[in-house]
Design goal:
The complex is a heterodimer.
Chain A (H helix, E strand, L loop, with lengths): L1 H8 L14 H8 L17 H11 L3 E6 L9
Chain B lengths: L1 H5 L4 H7 L3 E6 H6 L3 H13 L6 E5 L5 E5 L5 H17 L2 H5 L3 H7 L16 E9 L12 E8 L1 H5 L11 E3 L2 H11 L16 E14 L2 E18 L8 E18 L4 E14 L14 E9 L19
Antiparallel strand pairs in B: 2-3, 4-5, 4-11, 6-7, 7-8, 8-9, 9-10, 10-11
Helix pairs in contact in B: 2-5
The chains are: A mainly alpha, B alpha+beta.
């Protein structure tokens, strides 16, 4: 669908597409994330070092910690 | 978000991740704060390298650093580091891996609610907001980027999206402060990265009208239609905070949506809204310095699913008006 929409609007350089009742679902689907783009959520994320330590001590596994400014898992970074 | 897309979605990374407890959090805060968790992290950070805190760290529950790699969008680098961390882990004795120490201080301080979810508006309207550039002709940089955020409305604010006694055919303007919240903090250009909010003065237009289309029992169906225009001018950097120059930025958007609200439960059952419009300019960290001209961008709003990963606070909540 995203490819199709690209082709449909490809004639218009930087033109804002029409948002109508008919095109609403197409744009809603286009803008939202695809299944592939949400694949990172398949990881069983812990959202703090505290949570991670608790779980790591319980299951006796090493911790892999991704540090990123802001909110790494959801939202802007 | 690039690492989410290219590293953490990689099947090899995901497969190996099962051998770890995987954590993600704000490296900047942990590098500067003085609570037990931050001090614990700072020891691991100091053991690994100098420089900024961003990157991936592998360590034992006792706090022994195994491996640290810098900020990477290459899954191969991460896979190599995971293998190295597991080798080192296997070489350590149980007491070294699991021994008591700083980690126990962290656990004693454990909060009952995660830090970034403590102001969650229980029973309110939680919208997941996705943003993405809309198609243009030819090639343009970072066309595959997208980002997301959450918008929060308290329960009593969500009720104000509808009239007091909704009847089919009624129209109702959502109160201006609530539409402005969307315009200032969520109809912003964070497709490529972190963005600053618009000020109240930057909002030149913000209106969403609700049209009642159906009332069935306690469930009210509505259509939403509106527009927003935000525009800012001033001096700021567009490649980081250094070298501020005169800049402009804004977003001129049309909005359409559909939702259902249960008057008895006082909550939205469904909510879908789309903004399509033209953005221009850039901010310090949203990586638009090569893309300042007006170009189409969309934002989609949907009801957030249940679950703890849906409870992250809005990125710009510090500027919310309550």
């Amino acid at each position: 669908m995203k490819v199709l929409l690209c082709l449909v609007v490809a004639f218009a350089v930087h033109t804002v597409p029409q948002l109508t009742k008919d095109s609403f679902d197409q744009w809603y689907d286009f803008i939202g994330p695809s299944e592939q783009e949400l694949a990172y959520l398949k990881i069983n994320w812990k959202i703090s070092i505290q949570e991670g330590l608790l779980e790591a001590k319980r299951v006796k596994k090493p911790i892999m910690f991704w540090a990123m400014n802001g909110r790494p898992i959801r939202g802007c970074t | 978000m690039t690492a989410r897309q290219f590293v953490w979605s990689d099947p090899k990374v995901q497969s190996l991740a099962e051998q770890f407890v995987v954590v993600a959090d704000d490296g900047e805060r942990l590098g500067n704060a003085t609570d037990a968790e931050s001090l614990f992290f700072q020891k691991i950070w100091a053991a690994g390298s100098k420089g900024h805190t961003q990157g991936t760290y592998f360590f034992t529950p006792s706090g022994v650093l195994l491996v640290r790699i810098g900020d990477s969008v290459n899954p191969r680098t991460t896979v190599d580091a995971m293998h190295e961390a597991l080798r080192k882990w296997n070489d350590l004795s149980e007491p070294v891996r699991m021994g008591k120490g700083d980690a126990d201080m962290v656990l004693r301080e454990k909060a009952s609610v995660p830090r970034n979810q403590e102001h969650y508006p229980k029973g309110g309207l939680i919208l997941r907001c996705s943003c993405r550039d809309l198609p243009r002709t030819g090639r343009y940089p970072m066309a595959d980027r997208w980002n997301e955020d959450f918008a929060w409305f308290r329960k009593e604010e969500a009720r104000q999206f509808l009239p007091t006694a909704p009847r089919v055919g009624d129209t109702h303007d959502i109160p201006s402060p609530l539409v402005k919240r969307l315009a200032r903090f969520h109809l912003v250009d964070q497709v490529r990265g972190q963005v600053a909010p618009f000020s109240d003065e930057n909002v030149k237009n913000a209106r969403i009208t609700v049209h009642i289309t159906k009332v069935r029992g306690s469930v009210v169906s509505v259509e939403l239609k509106g527009e927003t225009l935000t525009s800012a001018e001033g001096r700021w950097g567009i490649d980081g905070p250094q070298n501020p120059t005169w800049q402009k930025r804004g977003y001129d958007a049309q909005l359409l949506g559909q939702a259902t609200y249960d008057l008895r439960k006082q909550e939205f059952v469904t909510f879908k809204m789309v903004a399509v419009g033209s953005r221009w300019g850039g901010t310090e960290y949203n990586l638009r310095s090569d893309d300042l001209e007006s170009a189409p961008m969309g934002v989609a709003f949907t009801l957030a699913e249940k679950g703890r990963l849906q409870r992250f606070q809005p990125g710009l909540i510090w500027a919310y008006d309550h």
